[in-house]
Specification:
Layout (H helix, E strand, L loop, with lengths): L1 H26 L9 E7 L3 E11 L5 E12 L3 E8 L6 E3 L6 E5 L13 E9 L2 E5 L5 E2 L5 E2 L22 E2 L4 E4 L2 E5 L2 E4 L6 E4 L2 E3 L16 E5 L1 E3 L5 H36 L4
Antiparallel strand pairs: 1-4, 2-3, 5-18, 6-17, 7-8, 7-14, 9-10, 11-12, 12-13, 15-16
Protein name: Flagellar hook-basal body protein
Organism: Sporosarcina oncorhynchi
Keywords: Bacterial flagellum, Cell projection, Cilium, Flagellum
Length: 278
């Protein structure tokens, strides 16, 4: 009976965490460049239940042989093992703003170990010589003329240097060259991650790499991409599917809750009625 409490409780916790993840996806469905989180729910190792019995052999002194009779497996509950963002490309949305730049995936190498394609990101200054990465190209120019993202991180060029411009009257080519008055003043830095699933989310649509700064996508064999000024990449959240998944998770939580209430009523009956001494 008590094992049932733990099994049902683990199911409720897993569905609660999944609901929180889906709610965050829904809240960011209109955030440019946002990558939807996906979850994997796994079962704890099963316990093999056996019945301890004995066989009496009719000898002169009497001999009992103990043995185990398998009853079957018993699940010990489930847990949400991890969450991982989906790096599928979102739809392109035209804004007409010169500081809005969309990073469009091209041919990206597929990692043999995972079978997943790599990903490209804008390079941002994360402080202390480290970089952060994003697909949100909703940039702006600060008071000192530096190109920054909505969180205030400086956008970096191919040499990991900050990009300073005269004003917002500039043009960006498909390969990332930034031109003012017809002259190239910088090239937008684009990083390539061969295993994007290893990147860590750091909030505000940013990713970091614990193993160090990612290599430049420019010049990396087999990596293709393009940039489009005046456009933004939309979130890749499927609002309809996310809402359906939220309702499914809620129903699963509710089902576990009803089972927990049934266990509670059974325990109450065992304590108050079966164990009563007349």
């Amino acid at each position: 009976m008590f094992k049932g409490f733990y099994t049902v409780g683990s199911g409720m916790i897993a569905q609660q965490r999944r609901t929180e993840m889906l709610a965050n996806n829904m809240a960011n469905s209109n955030t440019p460049g946002f990558k939807a989180e996906q979850s994997s729910i796994r079962s704890f190792p099963e316990m093999l239940m056996s019945n301890l019995d004995s066989t009496k052999i009719p000898t002169q002194k009497g001999l009992n042989l103990h043995g185990l009779s398998p009853v079957g497996g018993l699940s010990t509950g489930v847990y949400m093992q991890e969450t991982m963002p989906s790096f599928l490309q979102g739809a392109m949305r035209e804004t007409g703003m010169t500081t809005d730049i969309a990073l469009i995936d091209g041919n990206l190498p597929i990692d043999e170990a995972t079978g997943m394609a790599g990903a490209v990101f804008f390079k941002l200054d994360n402080g202390n010589g480290t970089e952060a990465y994003t697909k949100n190209g909703n940039f702006t120019i600060d008071a000192d003329g530096y190109l920054t993202n909505p969180s205030g991180n400086y956008v970096l060029d191919t040499n990991s240097q900050r990009i300073q411009l005269q004003n917002d009257d500039f043009a960006v080519s498909s390969n990332g060259d930034i031109m003012e008055n017809g002259a190239v003043v910088a090239t937008l830095g684009v990083a390539f991650a061969d295993q994007p699933g290893l990147l860590a989310k750091s909030g505000n649509g940013l990713f970091t790499n614990a193993a160090g700064n990612l290599p430049n996508a420019q010049g990396t064999a087999g990596v293709g991409y393009s940039l489009q000024q005046g456009y933004l990449e939309s979130s890749n959240v499927d609002a309809g599917k996310t809402m359906t998944d939220m309702l499914t998770a809620y129903r699963a939580f509710e089902a576990n809750q009803k089972i927990l209430q049934a266990y509670d009523r059974s325990m109450e009956k065992a304590v108050n009625e079966i164990g009563r001494v007349n």
